[in-house]
Amino acid sequence: MSQERIERILGELREFVREREWEQFHSPENLAKSISIEAGELLECFQWGQLEDTAAVSHELADVLTYCLLLADRLGLDPHAVVLEKLEITRAKYPVGLSRGRSIKHDQL
Amino acid sequence: MSQERIERILGELREFVREREWEQFHSPENLAKSISIEAGELLECFQWGQLEDTAAVSHELADVLTYCLLLADRLGLDPHAVVLEKLEITRAKYPVGLSRGRSIKHDQL
Amino acid sequence: MSQERIERILGELREFVREREWEQFHSPENLAKSISIEAGELLECFQWGQLEDTAAVSHELADVLTYCLLLADRLGLDPHAVVLEKLEITRAKYPVGLSRGRSIKHDQL
Amino acid sequence: MSQERIERILGELREFVREREWEQFHSPENLAKSISIEAGELLECFQWGQLEDTAAVSHELADVLTYCLLLADRLGLDPHAVVLEKLEITRAKYPVGLSRGRSIKHDQL
Q: In chain A, whose CA is at the least distance from the CA of D22?
């Protein structure tokens, strides 16, 4: 993925928000609520078990990701950097030897 | 952002999952549940109003993003492509003229 | 269930909140966020599939119910009345003949 | 609230589910997912800040409560008993002296 592409996405999202004067609604709290709301709509694709509508999943996942990118931008966070930083923390919580093949939470290991 | 960086993130996530033999738990449904669970933990940073712990928000947002990337990968979706596709749909639902400065949902416009 | 019991629960919840001076945090919005947060913790009992910890489910379900009762009380709503009112609406959306044995959403019937 | 009323609600919910042959979809996991999904719809009433549609809140709260009652029934739990049991645990975590007027989580007290 090229650098132009990621800057294009953030640029398009910021322009989309700006031309509709929606920054006023995008407090960090409202964006966090929006992530939860969209996560619920994504989960609804799986409500009764089997995934049947892959287009719906794609759209709902896009909504979650969009609000995540807007929240990261609002807080001055780099989405990729925060993922890598958290991965280091998670590596330490789940050493391979103890966690291989097990879904147990780290405080139970 | 360079191409090596995004490939590094996906590569690290896949390796992290693989060496712990956790693919078995990563059905699309379980990943969708995980996104909701982590979205709730992110929202908890704002439960009683003011954001006070920005490090916590960074970590929880990272968890949501991580599961989003894992779900996209599991379903063969490109996270950036789905965001851009959905943005086109949202542009049509919220014409600038009707939606400027208004937080009303599209079916009320 | 006797009348004394339901009044006892509401009474205990109101006293619990009052003696800690927590009404100030219990705006309808904060209570709605809390319901989502606790719903995520309940869902976490089922994150990787099988339910193994029934005591945990009991506690998390209690948390969701508690915040629901607090929100209903805050808005002057009777929890049982709203459930019955919504059931009537749902009966109309899902006629038995069309919906028997099917998990399809009403707008697809 | 009389005993007939609470039994009427559970009775109506069970009949509503039975006549549509929906018990097959009501695994504890699916009900827990449904609670999260409906909690997100309730939160959507507060997405951009002010509550404006009290009827919508009433309906969404009813949906969360309905699925909570169905999950409690499915697991053989008494909703009121679990709330009271959890309240005792919460009293111990949040002694009045330490928690009065403070929204801090118990592990920070």
A: A48
Residues of D in contact with C21 (CB under 8 A): 100-101
Tell me, yes or no, whether A108 lies in a domain.
no
CA distance D107 to chain C (A): 17
- Which residues of B, range 26-85, sit inside 8 Å of A by Cβ? 28-29, 32-33, 35-36, 39-40, 42-43, 45-46, 49, 51, 54, 57-59, 61-66, 68-69, 71-72, 75, 77, 79-80, 82-85
pTM, rounded to two decimals? 0.95
What are the backbone angles phi and psi of residue A79, rounded to the nearest 5°?
A: -55, -40
- With CB atoms and an 8 Å threshold, state whether B37 touches C30: no
Residue C18 lies in a domain: yes
What residues in D contact B36, CB-CB < 8 Å?
36, 40
Please check whether residue A20 lies inside any domain of the structure. Answer: yes
Give me the domain span that covers residue D84. Answer: 3-99
Residue D41: give its domain's CATH number. Answer: 1.10.287.1080
Mean pLDDT of chain C: 91
Give the DSSP H/E element, type plus range, for residue D16.
helix D3-19
> How far apart, in Å, are the Cα atoms of B76 and each of B44, B73, B79, B81, D76?
31, 5, 9, 11, 41
pLDDT at D39 > cutoff 50: yes
What percentage of chain A has pLDDT greater than the value 90?
77
Dihedral angle over CA of D80, D84, D86, D90, nearest 10: 140
Count of structural domains, chain B? 1
In a domain, C105, yes or no: no
Q: How far is CA B29 from the centre of its chain?
A: 15
- DSSP string for D46-91: TTTSS---HHHHHHHHHHHHHHHHHHHHHTT--HHHHHHHHHHHHH
In tens, the pLDDT along A55-88 reads: 999 999 999 999 999 999 999 999 999 999 999 9
